[in-house]
Amino acid sequence: MARRTLCLTLAVFLSASAAIAQTSGGQPPGAQTPEAPSPPSRLEDRKPDGVDLATFQARHRMRLMRADTDHDNRISEAEWTAWWAAHPGKGPADPAKRFRRLDADRDGFVTAEEIDAVTAKRFARFDDNHDGRVTRAERPCRTR
């Protein structure tokens, strides 16, 4: 009984809200409202241009810097290994090897600049037509 009352109350509230929204839209009665464009059906239609280098780097930097648990803007190998151990199956098969590849200056820490350098090289490999943007079709892991 309580559930039925709740459903009826919700239905009345939604109907009243819709009626108020229609009558107080700020337009005179009978005025035509422009139709909103329908959303694109595919991701390629929404983002035909892909992503540029700055966006590509920012996304990877943000994702990888989550491993920086002490928030000193650099990732130690211990932080890196602990992060990927806590997220099995979502990262590199060998986190230590990946860390060594990212740590260009071999100081034992990965910084945002080192991540940006590696992702710039990756971006260049993916950008087949060299237009400065990587589309979904150009990314081998996203073509499925």
How are the SSEs ordered, and which strands pair?
Elements: H1 2-23, H2 43-46, E1 51-52, H3 53-64, E2 74-76, H4 77-86, H5 95-102, E3 109-111, H6 112-126, E4 133-134
Helix pairs in contact: 3-6
Order of secondary-structure elements:
HHEHEHHEHE
Instruction: Calculate the terminal CA-CA distance, rounded to whole Å.
Output: 49 Å
Count of beta strands: 4
CATH topology of the domain at 49-142: Recoverin, domain 1
* Low-pLDDT windows of residues: none
What does this structure look like?
- The protein starts with a helix and ends in a 10-residue tail after the last strand.
- Helix 3 packs across helix 6.
- It is built from six helices and four strands; from the N terminus they run H-H-E-H-E-H-H-E-H-E.
- The chain has helices at 2-23, 43-46, 53-64, 77-86, 95-102, 112-126; strands at residues 51-52, 74-76, 109-111, 133-134.
- By secondary structure, it is mainly alpha-helical.
- The strands form two sheets. The protein has a two-stranded antiparallel ribbon. The protein has a two-stranded antiparallel sheet with strand order 2-3.
- The chain has a domain at 49-142: Recoverin, domain 1, CATH 1.10.238.
- The chain is extended.
